[in-house]
Hints:
Chain A has about 450 residues and is α+β, with helices and mostly antiparallel strands. In chain A, about 45% of the residues lie in helices and about 20% in strands.
Amino acid sequence: xxxxxxxxxxxxxxxxxxxxxxxxxxxxxxxxxxxxxxxxxxxxxxxxxxxxxxxxxxxxxxxxxxxxxxxxxxxxxxxxxxxxxxxxxxxxxxxxxxxxxxxxxxxxxxxxxxxxxxxxxxxxxxxxxxxxxxxxxxxxxxxxxxxxxxxxxxxxxxxxxxxxxxxxxxxxxxxxxxxxxxxxxxxxxxxxxxxxxxxxxxxxxxxxxxxxxxxxxxxxxxxxxxxxxxxxxxxxxxxxxxxxxxxxxxxxxxxxxxxxxxxxxxxxxxxxxxxxxxxxxxxxxxxxxxxxxxxxxxxxxxxxxxxxxxxxxxxxxxxxxxxxxxxxxxxxxxxxxxxxxxxxxxxxxxxxxxxxxxxxxxxxxxxxxxxxxxxxxxxxxxxxxxxxxxxxxxxxxxxxxxxxxxxxxxxxxxxxxxxxxxxxxxxxxxxxxxxxxxxxxxxxxxxxxxxxxx
Amino acid sequence: xxxxxxxxxxxxxxxxxxxxxxxxxxxxxxxxxxxxxxxxxxxxxxxxxxxxxxxxxxxxxxxxxxxxxxxxxxxxxxxxxxxxxxxxxxxxxxxxxxxxxxxxxxxxxxxxxxxxxxxxxxxxxxxxxxxxxxxxxxxx
Amino acid sequence: xxxxxxxxxxxxxxxxxxxxxxxxxxxxxxxxxxxxxxxxxxxxxxxxxxxxxxxxxxxxxxxxxxxxxxxxxxxxxxxxxxxxxxxxxxxxxxxxxxxxxxxxxxxxxxxxxxxxxxxxxxxxxxxxxxxxxxxxxxxxxxxxxxxxxxxxxxxxxxxxxxxxxxxxxxxxxxxxxxxxxxxxxxxxxxxxxxxxxxxxxxxxxxxxxxxxxxxxxxxxxxxxxxxxxxxxxxxxxxxxxxxxxxxxxxxxxxxxxxxxxxxxxxxxxxxxxxxxxxxxxxx
Lengths: 454, 140, 283
């Protein structure tokens, strides 16, 4: 039986959270750390590049107020903590939205149209989703727990394998965090190579997403065309680092191999050639009435919900968001405009996806142009202690990595991606969707469950 | 290999399972079907009752283990299981004592493996066909 | 008798061969799964050798019953029986498939049942109106009798819309082009293999054969409208069928409810137009 906070403690805590909300801050990470019988929970907030936090220390088995009603996006992060540590959040656990009385259709956890495992229990009326409950946990590998006490190099290897979508970006963010803790200033060339890698990984992840959308639309030939682009990408990636997923190149203190300028130019030339094909795909989908209509009439998110979401779900509703501004990578030296669109439906998000692919190509090209000469790695002793938070751009939005290091070993790590913030909204967003459109809407919402569940 | 087993293994329905993992292996599988393979007749299904082969990628935790075993039971005999990628073949970096992470062969009788992180897509279709042929041979 | 046996075997064989060709042609399009020329045959062999994993024993009887009644309907078709009688036997075959799909706990199968019944109601309506039109022109409903009058009365000229409606019925039955109700499980979809989700192993092989036999019956119905010798008319109807099936790869899909509406408008509508025209023109 949990020990509830006293009314006064709860009141003070909720007031502080509300205060953050009213001053324009958004909740962007909840992390917990256990020491003996006490649990330290940190609520991190952001307002542009400004960060703030609220820390609470609670004894084991406490029940603390949930922030769900103030910041709905925090629900998943609370659940993560509640599953791992002896603490619970009042009324914060996921509520089964299914209505009693009629049995649901089960979809998943494994299905070819579901790129990641999750079990959907759907109650429908006339094949329109009436209520939906999503069970997760099939992706959980306990990466954060496995990282504790490990050397940074081992942690980096694990984080890169978290997800095809955000793995490389998480690895880069982690490397920057460790470097910050140890006061390492990596060479400029390494920063630019990391920027190119990050954009390349975003590009591949978005191509994969585009392929899935084509499959969901039944456009098999377009899907196969995107597969051809992914294959070309893999060849370019192998030219740079012998790995189609760009794994193993990021290293604390720089990058693992000094990539030749020639190889990078060659890879960039192959990638830039894809621009024409992506533009023609965009124009084909926009000008084909049946495709346009199907995308336009599905997956609508109301503007209030979209504003609270992150990544393309928010930008598809006209909300401007640019995580690259807060990155440790030299994005500020590049010229680009973050695309947004209106409509807040599958069409706006799909077109945004193609725009993001084109943006990545532009940034890769500029990155290659700006690539300086010199070393891409330095040797340094990683034995420091400290705690740092790093924000980075990934394919679907923002990735946040909180790293705490003690005497050269990782004490704890907490990561969250844009899916973590968007996932709590999913049941409401999917309500009213035609059952046959469910895979399409889900894909357009850019869910990276493996990066979320870890 | 009997002619009948060869004929039957020219139509293979694969049920791909993406357990906990980065999705890279599953992407390689779909790439292999779309671009690399000269081998024909491999289709993807989401229906265990109509599948011939279970293709497992990613690390398996307690929760997915239960779901995978249920699916395996629903696949009619003869059936084969193949494991693709380091996570599924050995648990990769994530399999540690007492952490509840399994490789495919810890929970099911695996017929073939395509190792590597990330696995080579060119090897996947051939491995699928050989695994199914072996399953038919076993029944004979 | 020999003639009937030859027609019976010939229809089954020709539908099988045309399916080999269609599946191979479709596989040549970009993005489609690569297949061998004999792919449908390999699939049938594989399914026939597999055990049925369904926990519900009745499904085996339903699948066998569906095949039996469809074969009976085919035999009556080649014997030149009354088309309404043949159609009622086809309804029994269809009901067996539907009963099998709805008897299991497969939720996708259950969803597909609603779609199949909607599709089948289009077929029933169209065929009943078509039968009335045919009777008005030929004075008989016996296929044998209709066949003898085809050339004398040039059915295709008197029943052009009925002919079109019969082609539409084939599209609805096969679930292709603008009439994809998601019942036949040709492409990967949310509802898996639609109506056939509940079937597996040899039961699925039997259902697949039933589907081919039914296609054969529809093609024979269509060939009745054509004025040439029977085997030429049947070959032409098979070619029309092949073209429509291949063209499915180029047609964007709609939702199933829209497909039902399309079906009623095109198949039912064409059939009704011809019926009204016959009365107005007093043919």
